[in-house]
Every structure is written in structure tokens, then in C-alpha cells.
Amino acid sequence: MNYLHPHLNRRQALLGLGAASVALATSAQALDAPASPGLKDLAAAKGMRFGTAIGAKGGITDANVRAILLRECNLIVPENELKMYVTHNNNATDYNFAPGDALLDFAQSNHIAMRGHNLFWARDEFTPAWLKNYDFGATPKAAAEKLLRGEWGFKGITVSDYFALHEMITRHHLVTDDTEAAFRALNAGVDVETPDRAAYPHLTDLIAAGRVSEDQINAVVRRILEVKFLGGLFERPYIDAKKADSLTATPEAVALAHEAATRTPVLLKNNGILPFNTKKIGKLLVLGTHAKDTPIGGYSDVPRHVVSILDAVTAEGKAQGFSVDYSEAVRLTEGHVWGQDQINFTPDSVNDKLIADAVAAAKSADTILMVLGDNEQTSREGWADNHLGDRDSLDLIGRQNDLAAQIFALGKPTVVFLLNGRPLSVNLLDEKADALVEGWYMGQETGWAAADILFGRANPGGKLPVSIARDVGQLPIYYNYKPSARRGYIDGSTKPLYPFGYGLSYTTFDISAPMLEKASIGTADSVNVSIDVTNTGSVKGDEVVQLYIRDDVSSVTRPLLELKHFKRVTLNPGEKQTVTFAVTPADLWFFNVDMQRVVEPGTFTLFAGPNSVDLKSVVLTVA
Fold this sequence. Notes:
By secondary structure, the chain is an alpha/beta fold. Among the domains are: 257-474, Rossmann fold; 509-622, Immunoglobulin-like (Sandwich). Helices cover 25% and strands 15% of the residues. It has a 6-stranded mixed β-sheet with strand order 1-6-5-4-2-3, sandwiched between helices. A 5-stranded mixed β-sheet has the order 9-17-16-11-12. Helix 10 (251-263) packs across helix 16, helix 12 packs across helix 16 and helix 13 packs parallel to helix 14. The radius of gyration is 26 Å and the shape is globular.
């Protein structure tokens, strides 16, 4: 199961991080939308655990930061990866590395009662300036105790990210030496310095000087030891490496990887060419360097084997009796090692020849499959000045659009399959391709899963977890915007190229308007909402039924639309299923001007549909 990397937020689509690795294909989950128990249940079924749900009276227990992020922001966070969700931000420049008011932005974006910002550790803004807007009249340490360990009830440890303490000297110019950095960090509530010790070895000097007490150190050590005890590190300090290795790449694991990859792609466009008819496909030409050299994304390690799209399509041709040719067509970079600092973009002279060769080959082909997108170097985290990852555009990088334009000009049936880590502005592909599949990064079983989709053994059912922008100028673009957010442009549209929750199928579905168990409820009550979904097409397929809610009139401005529940269902042709969601106060509440979580009396419009645009509605009254 994939999950959103904590560095990514709604304004950071330009960052080289795998926003889309979360298409999960499992559901219409949102980068910037409230979650539903369906996603939590799905993740649990796939082996991921989360903190328990937060009670109606609020308050965040030591296990529940993940639950807030899951439910309020729809972000999946493994238990060992809270990392920058609390502190990373909509920053000043939209780079991966820039200052910003993280916690305040988080609260404003997700209606959570947090009054301070830039908590304890963040590589990009480690500074006591986070106290502004938090009226403690006290030190950062007191703020840490009151907010994190008091109001939130957090009992774990806080850890600085890469070289953050030393960068108080080198980057932020807050202090002049590591001793002072250690003093500031400890008093701001940082328990552990990572990855290498630069500042905290000087704590002994601070104790000797009387600036830090042994009681302070003991409190930190006690927390660290408690975490180690709870993790079983004293009872079982070492793993069985051989056993762990034997559990890797088992048939069950490979089958799960195949299933996840098959459920991941989102079908964005199809004029009927997909699934391919092997009796009519004729001579198939596969284009694109990553049709053969499969990108799998950063932070993914190296699988024991990777099946490319070319491998799988070639096998399909041999089995079904059609010919498959290949031309590299376009190359993005010379190698795509994620951890390599320097990116060597392929020279135009090389791509000129590759494109010319591809066009020549395409002239004798009957059908064309182009594999375009990103790789681990063009879509990655920019973690240092010499290891950049941000881009100034969302267009296909390099010469890919040049290739596509020349191929489309031939007028041959052409399908484009995207393998990429960031949402891309693919206006040319949307206009010219006969079919467009957003595959994201699909993992080691990429080829087999892509072939299943292309040749109809699997019916795509994934939905977009983000809105796809037409142009970088539309950013930030997300579906749950406030009423005044989209006035318009003089030279373009405010509508996304593809809306949040969007995704086509090889069949068709009808989704009814929501049906209320009762038309009126109290502010503390819940109501069941039923939605009928029918497969009106001729093949078996999946649909994700999505339930959105809008608070029609509220005391503070609220989003025009918020995803509250969704469910992916599989239906045979003609089959009908009723999906029922329980709408609870948690789906209706928000923080008012007094920072109190409330459900206000009034009307709420409930919407149901296959995406965030094509919706049918009903009105619920809360009295």
C-alpha cells in the first residue's frame, strides 16, 4: 500500500514527490479532503495501523495525530512516520525547503483547533519564531509542554530532521555555535537529534555550565527509554535477518503487489480504443524509454525483479499472435538513480535522433502505445542545495511533448500510458490521444498490471486523489476550496484539467442522488444515507461511490464541497447495489470563531457521484 509522503501538501504539486503514488486505486482518497472509515479499514486490511479515532470532545492522545490526519486531511501516515505532517507547510516559495507558518496553515486548511505553528522540528524552519500567534507568555519549552504534551496529550518523543539543529547556524543564522543550538533545541522540546550528532554532544557542557539541568536530561531519556521498551527493543533487540529475507518476494507478496498495481491506474480518456482488441491491433509499436526501463519512484528501494510494460506487452503479443516493435523514442535523463545528486538531462542531439527514429517506425505501425511521464530523478524530494527536486512547470519534462506531437500528427491510433510521480499538466495528451491512462508509479509488477488494463483482463477503477491542473498558474488547485477562492482568470479557466475523484471505466454506471433515512436530525444525531449504484454497461467493473457535504450557511467560511465518505464496489453488468454511509456529527462539525468544535443548526447539502463534479444532491436539515 502506498501513502502520501509527509512533505507533500496541496501547494506542492511541483515538488518531486510521489503525490500520485497514493492513487491507491483503491478509492477516491484526497490530498486535501476529509477521509472516511473506508480508507482506514482498507489500509488496516493491507497491514497498516493507525491511531484510534478522536472523540467528539476533541483532544489528541498520543496515538491520535495519525487519526486526525487521516480523517480531517485524508492523509495516510504509518505509525513510524509522523514526521513533518505537524510542521511541514504551505511555504513561502513552494519549494520543498522554505520557511512558512506550518501549524497555523495546517489549522486553517483543516479546521483543527491549533493556535501555534512551526512546532519543534522541521528542517525548513527550525526556529523559536514558531511562538508567534501562540499566546503563552512563556518559553518555547513551556509551549511544547502545554500544546504537544498538554493539549494534545502526546507521550512520545520529538526528533529533529536532517541536520536541522546544525542548520540553526549554517542556514537560519539563529546561533553562532552548536552548543547554543543544543540549548535552543532542548528548550524547544527536541528529544533526539538526527541523523548525525552535531549539537547534542555539547549538552554535557551545558549541564556543567548550569544552563541545562539533569532533570531536563532525565525527562528526555525517560521518554526515549519508554519508547524503546514499548517497541520491545530490550526483549528482542535484533531481528532474524534470514527469516525477514525469506518473507520477502513470496508468492503471496508478489500477488499482492500485482493486485495493488492493477487497481492503481486511473483511466482519464478513452474513445473506445481500450481495451485493445488483439484481433484488430495489428502491428503494435511501443515507444518511450520507461516502457523498457521502469521507474518505481523514490523511497521504494530496489525490488528483486521489475516487469516492464514492454516485457508484458511483448509476452501478450506472443500469446495472442500480434507483433510488437519497440523504439526508445525519447529519453529524459542519463540514468535515473534517485539518490544521485547531479541530474544529467539527455542532450537534445540524442533526443532528436530518438524522436526521428520513433516517427519513422511509427509510419509502419498499426497501433501505437506511448509510455511517458517522470522518473526517479525528475520527480523526487529536493533535500539539499546540491540535490534538487522542485520544478517550475507541471508539463511533461524534456522532449516528451515534441515526440507526442509528431506521433499524433501521423493520425495512427495512439494510447498514452503515464508513469509518473507528480500530477502533470497533460493538455496535449488530453486533446490528441485516443486513450490516456494515469498509471503513477506502479511498483515491481508494473508491466503485468499495465497489460491487464490495456488488454481488458482488468477494468480500471482508480480515481484521482488530486485535481490535475491545466497549468502551473492554477496552483494551488483543489476541489474543497472556499467560496471566494476562484474568481477567474482573464486568459484561462479556473477548472482543473481533470477534477478530484475522477476516473473512467470500460463500463458505465448510474449513481443515484443520496437518500436520507430521515430528512431532519438534531445537532448530536447521526443519519444513514443510502446511494444506489448500478452497472449500466456490458462488462464487470468497479465504481467508487463518493459522498460530499456542504454546510449551506455557517458562522465561518467553509469549503463549498468536502468528501466525507466513499466506497469502491465491484458490479457485474446490470447489477445494482445500495451503498449506505452513516453521517455523524464528525462529518458536520467544524471549529467556530471561538475555536470550539460545533455542529451548527441549518441545512447541509449532501452530494453523491463518481467524482467531485458530476453530482446529485439532497438537503439535510439539522435542528
